[in-house]
Design brief:
This protein is an alpha+beta fold. The longest helix has 43 residues, at 398-440. A hairpin with a 4-residue loop joins strand 15 (535-540) and strand 16 (545-549). It is 39% helix and 16% strand.
Length: 591
C-alpha cells in the first residue's frame, strides 16, 4: 500500500470519529455533516499514519510523513471527495475572500506582506500602519489588504485564534493530533511570479487550498550543513539566509544537494503535506487560462513539535542541562538547531531532531511507565550516536532521560491546554457575535458597517488572545528554570540510596538545614541556626530558639546531596570569612 493509499484509508476511517467530535463541540447537529469534522479526520489520519509507520524501537515501516526523513504528499480534492462519498470534499466553499472581508470589518486583525525576490531570504513588512490615535485609525482595512496584494502575499499568522470561523478547524487539528498547533492564512493575487521565495519551516505543515490556485515546488532538505552550520535547517531562506531558487534547481550534485520532489498546482479543496525542513516555493502564474479567480487563499496548519520542545533534541538538551553535563552540541545562541548539530552525519541529525511520538501528550506518564522507558531508551540510543560522532561521553542515566521526558510532557500538556482554551474562546466569540448580530441587525448603518459597542470592542481578538500568550511565555520560562536549576531527581535518588539508613539522625548538619527538634518527646519544625562543635542551635518557626542540642535530638528532613560534601564547619566564622572560604573551595574544585 502506498503512503497516499494508507492516508486515504485512515482518513475514511476517521470521518465517523470526526463527526462525533464536531457534534460534541456544537459544530453540527447529530447526524449532520460539518466541515470541522473533515478537518478533524484529516489530522487524525496523519496521526494514525505516523503511529503505524514508526515502530516502538524507533525504526520505520515504510514511508513516513514527518521529519527530515519524511515524504511530502499531495491529495487532490476528488480523492478526498471519493472517500467522503461526495461530489466535492468538505473543505470546498469553507472560506473565501468575502469571509476575510467580513472578519476585517468585525475585528482588529494584523498581517504582514511577504517579499517576492526568489534569490534572497523571505522578508516581511507590516500591511498597515496607524493613521491616527483613535481605535478605527489603528485598524487594518480591506483597502490596505488589497493594496498589499499588488506587491506580494498577505500573511495572517495564528489566524485560527483570531477569526472565529477558522477557530473550529484549528481546534480540530489540535484535538485530533493531541498537539498544540496553529493556523496561518496566505492570500495572494493571481499572476504573482513568486508568492513565497524558497524557504523551510520549523513545522510540518498541512496546506488546504480554500480559493483560487497556487503552484508549489517542493525540494529535499539541503545537505550543506558542513558549509553553513549556523543556518537553521528549519528556517532556511528566511531573514538574512538566502536559498536561491536556481541553486535548488541544480539538483543533488549542486551546491545545496537538494532535489525537486514535487511540482503541483493546488486548487480549491486540494491538500498538500510538507514535512519540516523541506524547501518549497510558490507562485500563482497559471499556465492555462481556464482557471478563473482573483485571489489564491490557502490555510497552513502547523504541526508544532519543534516549536514546543517535543522532539528528541530538546529532550536531550533538557536532560543534559538538568544534570549539569557539558553539551558538545551546545549552540552559541538560544536556537538549538544551529551550530554543531548541523555538522553531525545526516542520518544522526535526522534521528535527533525527529519529533516525539504524536501520542506522547495523550498518555499519563505515571500510568504508562513502559511507554516512557521505551522513549527514554530511544533517546539514549540517539544520544549514544551523538557521543560516538563527537567523542563526548555524556553519562546520563536512563532515569534522568525519563525525568526530562516527564518534565517536557508536563510542559507540553500545559501548552496544549492553553492553545485549546484560546481556540475555544474564539469559537465561543463567534457564536456570541452571531447571536448579537441577530438581535441588532436593525442597528446596522445604511452602508452595512457594523456598529460596535464598547463591550464588544473589549472582546476583540487583539485583547482576547493576549492573556493566552502571556501564559505561554510563563510556561516557557518555567521549563527553562527547571532545566538549569540543578541536579536531577535521578541523581539525587542514586545519592540517597547510598546513605546510612538512619541518615535523618546521623548525616552532617549545616546552617539553614530544615529539621525537626526533639523537645521533651515532641518534634517541632525549625532550621539550624548555628553549628558549634558537636552541638546545634535551632530556631523554630515561631521565633523561639533552643541551643546546645545533641545530634540525636535533631531529625533532618531532606537527604543530603553530593553538594553537601563541600560544606564546612562555619563555627566562629564571620560572613566575610565564610565567603572567602567558599571562593577557595570553588577554585580548588576547578583545579
Amino acid at each position: 500500500m502506498s503512503l497516499l493509499e494508507h492516508f486515504i484509508t485512515e482518513y475514511q476511517q476517521s470521518l465517523e470519529e470526526g463527526s462525533k467530535w464536531a457534534t460534541e463541540f456544537g459544530f453540527a447537529e447529530e447526524g449532520e455533516d460539518a466541515p470541522e469534522s473533515a478537518f478533524y479526520a484529516i489530522f487524525r489520519a496523519i496521526r494514525q499514519v505516523d503511529a503505524k509507520t514508526n515502530n516502538a524501537d524507533g525504526s520505520s515501516s515504510g514511508e513516513k510523513l514527518m521529519g527530515l526523513s519524511g515524504v511530502p504528499m499531495y491529495v487532490p480534492n476528488y480523492i478526498l471527495a471519493r472517500a467522503e462519498q461526495k461530489h466535492q470534499n468538505a473543505f470546498c466553499d469553507f472560506f473565501h475572500f468575502p469571509h476575510l472581508a467580513k472578519a476585517l470589518e468585525e475585528d482588529f486583525l494584523d498581517a504582514q506582506r511577504g517579499s517576492t525576490n526568489n534569490r534572497k531570504g523571505w522578508q516581511v513588512a507590516a500591511v498597515s500602519q496607524p493613521t491616527g490615535s483613535s481605535f478605527n485609525d489603528a485598524r487594518m482595512t480591506l483597502p490596505e489588504v488589497n493594496a498589499a496584494l499588488e506587491a506580494g502575499t498577505v500573511i495572517f499568522n495564528n489566524i485560527g485564534a483570531h477569526i472565529p470561523r477558522l477557530a473550529g478547524p484549528t481546534l480540530a487539528s489540535t484535538d485530533a493530533l493531541s498537539l498544540p498547533g496553529a493556523l496561518n492564512m496566505y492570500v495572494t493575487a493571481k499572476g504573482m511570479r513568486t508568492s513565497a521565495p524558497p524557504h523551510t519551516d520549523r513545522q510540518d505543515v498541512l496546506v488546504v487550498q480554500m480559493e483560487g490556485a497556487k503552484r508549489w515546488r517542493v525540494f529535499t532538505p539541503p545537505t550543506d550543513g558542513d558549509v553553513k552550520p549556523n543556518a537553521d535547517p528549519f528556517a532556511r531562506g528566511k531573514g538574512e539566509d538566502s536559498l536561491p531558487l536556481h541553486t535548488l534547481l541544480e539538483g543533488r550534485e549542486g551546491r545545496l544537494g537538494s532535489e525537486l520532489l514535487m511540482d503541483v498546482v493546488t486548487r480549491e479543496g486540494d491538500v498538500l503535506y510538507i514535512p519540516a525542513g523541506f524547501p518549497h516555493t510558490t507562485d500563482t502564474v497559471e499556465e492555462s487560462n481556464d482557471v478563473d479567480y482573483d485571489t489564491s487563499i490557502h490555510l497552513t496548519f502547523n504541526i508544532d513539535t519543534h516549536v514546543w520542545d517535543l522532539d528528541y533534541l530538546a529532550a536531550r538538551s533538557a536532560a543534559l542541562q538538568r544534570n549539569k553535563v557539558n553539551d558538545a552540541l551546545s549552540p552559541q545562541s538560544e536556537n538549538r538547531y544551529v551550530g554543531k548539530v548541523n555538522q553531525l552525519p545526516q542520518n544522526i541529525r535526522s534521528q535527533l531532531v525527529d519529533a516525539l511520538p504524536l501520542e506522547f501528550l495523550d498518555i499519563v506518564p505515571s500510568e504508562s511507565p513502559d511507554f516512557m522507558k521505551g522513549i527514554a531508551k530511544q533517546l539514549a540510543t540517539k544520544c549514544n550516536l551523538v557521543d560516538e560522532a563527537t567523542g563526548q561521553s555524556t553519562e546520563v542515566s536512563e532515569a534522568s532521560y525519563v525525568e526530562a521526558l516527564e518534565r517536557i510532557h508536563s510542559y507540553g500538556s500545559d501548552i496544549l491546554d492553553v492553545h485549546r482554551d484560546m481556540y475555544l474562546a474564539a469559537v465561543e466569540e463567534g457564536r456570541l457575535r452571531k447571536a448579537e448580530d441577530a438581535m441588532t441587525a436593525h442597528l446596522k448603518k445604511d452602508d452595512g458597517e457594523v456598529t460596535m459597542s464598547n463591550e464588544r470592542m473589549q472582546r476583540l481578538s487583539l485583547f482576547r488572545v493576549r492573556p493566552f500568550f502571556e501564559q505561554i511565555e510563563s510556561l516557557k520560562k518555567d521549563l527553562y528554570s527547571w532545566c538549569v536549576s540543578g541536579e536531577s531527581i535521578a541523581q539525587e535518588s542514586a545519592a540517597s540510596s547510598q546513605l546510612d539508613p538512619n541518615w535523618q539522625f546521623t548525616a552532617a548538619l549545616k546552617v539553614g538545614d530544615e529539621v525537626e527538634a526533639d523537645l521533651g518527646g515532641a518534634f517541632f519544625a525549625g532550621k539550624i541556626a548555628q553549628v558549634t562543635g558537636n552541638t546545634y542551635n535551632v530556631v523554630f518557626f515561631d521565633g523561639d530558639r533552643e541551643n546546645g542540642l545533641e545530634r540525636d535530638q535533631i531529625k533532618l528532613l531532606n537527604p543530603p546531596t553530593a553538594a553537601d560534601e563541600d560544606e564546612f564547619d562555619t563555627t566562629g566564622m564571620t560572613p566575610k570569612e565564610i565567603k572567602r572560604m567558599r571562593k577557595k573551595m570553588e577554585k580548588k574544585k576547578r583545579k
